[in-house]
UniProtKB/TrEMBL annotation:
Protein name per UniProt: SET domain-containing protein
InterPro entries (UniProt xref): SET_dom_sf (IPR046341), SETD3_SETD6_MTase (IPR050600)
Organism: Catenaria anguillulae PL171
Molecular function (Gene Ontology), one example: protein-lysine N-methyltransferase activity
Gene3D superfamilies, per database record: set domain protein methyltransferase, domain 1
PANTHER family: GRIP DOMAIN-CONTAINING PROTEIN, UNCHARACTERIZED PUTATIVE METHYLTRANSFERASE
Amino acid sequence: MKTYVSIRSTLFVTVTLCNMSEPSSSSASTLSKVVHWWQSHLPSAPSSSSQSATAAMIQPRPSPLGGNGLFLTTTSLALALATAQPIATIPNDLLITAAKIHHHAQQHDRPLARALDHLTPPDCQLAPSRLAILTFLLRFRALPDQSQPNPWRPYLLALPTLADLHVPTQYEDQELALLHGTAMPRLVAAKRAKLVDELESILSAFDQVPTSPTSESAPSVNVDMRQAVSLADLLWADAIFWSRVLETPAPTSSTSGPQSKSAAATFELAMIPILDFANHSFDNPTLRWDRDPATGDVHLSLTSSSPSTTLTASDELFLCYDPEKSNEQLLFTHGFVIPGNTRGYISVDAMPELNMLAAQAPELSHRIQWAVNHLQVRPMVQVSANPSCKSGPAQSAAAATITWLESLLDPTSLALVLLVAVDDAGAAHAIQVASESTATDQQDLVHKTLAVLKAKVGASQDAVERACEFLHVVFSRVAQEVDEIKVGTVVSAEQDMVVVDIEGVGEDGDKAVVQHEMARARLDAIVGYKEQVREVVLGVVKATMVGGQ
């Protein structure tokens, strides 16, 4: 039972196990249908027998990590290692791209085709890939049965359901409350606002589609998309997009066609069935993929670092999604974190401090707004997740401290901090130089602005101390807020669901309790992410102490 209480400041969380596991969205029958669908599209001619044999080398099935994974079959390992041949091929016909969606819609779903036409910019031949894929997924949600032809139906039916997805945009309010003190609630709010706009764009495109069939219409079923789909459906489609779409080289002989009228596309975004069952590993990726430039087929192979001594038949195969992906990115796009992953950055919300400083100094408000407009600065500080970056002495010489700040912060965050620290004349000079520069792109503009700011701040010990003081104030507040919540330990690893009792302060100032049922995977991700945020934040607080603060 859920009790909903308004909580102003969450303080404690205790965890109680509850036997409420749910079946996977992909049953054995559904997975079997996907495999049959895939194999039915493989070449069957004798000359292609080696390609056909690879279909038996891998198999999607439930993973011990949760959800599904890709596994070697009992007969595949020796053959794959002996011949160095691909262990599987995904025919180009099975990939989902913007061009194929357009082609399918023209042949079988005229309302979808018309909507995509309305979403296509004037100078392009196709709607933007992301928008096309989201629109296609929403159309499938509206017509999931056999009433509308869809060659990818077996694959689409095997995709995770909303309940299986654990990305923060899917979190309930109580679950986001557990991330109090981190930047994640603000990131989620911004993402949801963007999705609201995208949904309206898509639905407006369908609004312009005639409701009655015309002589030119392909056989299709019309439906009121505003009634058939909601924001929850787009939240699902967005999570599917970010967790499954890959950027791939566009085949030279494909039907994808150019994205614009001026130049042919060299890359395209694609959903790649079967491959997207593979789970992630930084340390032991055993699977790699490449796309044939002529045919567009995708070939899956064992990595050179997966010898027979480490792989056995029936082992799960892993991809490395991105060798530099931070836990914050993994949580935001995939819904999990990896213990010990110190790659990338952690975001910290600096809006309260920026608002306070702007109220005291209107000129600062103007320069921050300039940075937002021209440098794409956000009211956040992105700090390295690598603990070694927190050991820099904040009280060293100004130039050395600037070098340390460069190792600690991402470029746009460094620009934000230095704009706060530099005096008005120095800031005005940096903005003037940047505005008059001949930067080739936004990244070059950031680089040129930073060069001026580093010279100005690095020449003043007072300015350097102001930069460190700003960081110290921001991270001290965050350290306090992160510790306003404590999560009890989940002892059993056998259950999919847990119940959390959230104790905090209600709107009336009294203690309030919220009992909330949630997926164990979500709780594990929240706990892991907050532990890393706490460690990083406390490291910055210590390193930025100036004058014995």
